[in-house]
């Protein structure tokens, strides 16, 4: 039971910075510290992130995306997998940059909210079950 709890309750501390090109206030907002579930997805953190940075954002339509060291992060890959793949020497907290503008549609498929994340997860489960049948 202990191993199961460690897996399901595993989390990664994130330090999320607003990209400097999107800051409209002085001083810039401080980074946000969040504990993200390893088996969760970054778009599911947006309800915690948006209010923290909302006063510093330029006007316009929000399309949230994340990057790590200038690499746009694929939202449909679980946070723990992204962390394990991209951090050869794990950093704590994991420093990510959040963007609310300039979605890289040529690199990332769009995420249209929580329902999109749920359907992506269900499709991943179907793909895995097909591979093992």
Distance, first to last CA: 28 Å
The tally of helices reads 4
* CATH fold field value: Ubiquitin-like (UB roll)
- Rounded radius of gyration (Å): 16 Å
With strands numbered from the N-terminus, the spatial order across the biggest sheet is 2-1-5-3-4
Proportion of strand residues: 15-25%
Largest sheet: 5 strands, mixed
The SSE string, one letter per element, is: HEEHEEHEH
Give the class from helix and strand content and strand pairing: alpha+beta
Helix percent reads 25-40%
- Structure summary, number of beta strands: 5
- Our count of domains comes out at 1
What is the C-level CATH assignment?
Alpha Beta
Q: What is the residue-mean pLDDT, rounded to a whole number?
A: 89
Structural commentary:
With 133 residues, the protein is an alpha+beta fold. It has a single domain, classed as Roll (Ubiquitin-like (UB roll)), CATH 3.10.20.620. Helix content is 31%, strand content 20%. The chain has four helices and five strands; from the N terminus they run αββαββαβα. A hairpin with a 2-residue loop joins strand 3 and strand 4 (71-72). The protein is globular, with a radius of gyration of 16 Å. The two termini are 28 Å apart. Pfam families: ATG5_UblA. This is Autophagy protein ATG5 UblA domain-containing protein.
List keywords for this structure.
alpha+beta; Autophagy protein ATG5 UblA domain-containing protein; 20% strand; Atg5_HR; single chain; globular; Ubiquitin-like (UB roll); 133 residues; ATG5_UblA
């Amino acid at each position: 039971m202990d191993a199961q709890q460690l897996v399901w309750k595993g989390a990664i501390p994130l330090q999320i910075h607003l990209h400097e090109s999107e800051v409209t206030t002085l001083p810039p907002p401080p980074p946000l510290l969040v504990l993200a579930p390893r088996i969760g997805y970054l778009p599911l953190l947006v309800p915690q992130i948006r209010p923290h940075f909302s006063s510093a954002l330029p006007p316009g339509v929000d399309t949230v995306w994340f990057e790590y060291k200038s690499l746009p992060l694929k939202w449909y890959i679980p946070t723990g997998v992204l962390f394990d793949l991209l951090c050869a020497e794990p950093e704590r907290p994991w420093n990510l940059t959040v963007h609310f503008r300039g979605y890289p549609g040529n690199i990332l498929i769009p995420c249209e909210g929580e329902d999109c994340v749920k359907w992506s997860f269900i499709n991943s489960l179907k793909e895995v079950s097909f591979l093992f049948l």
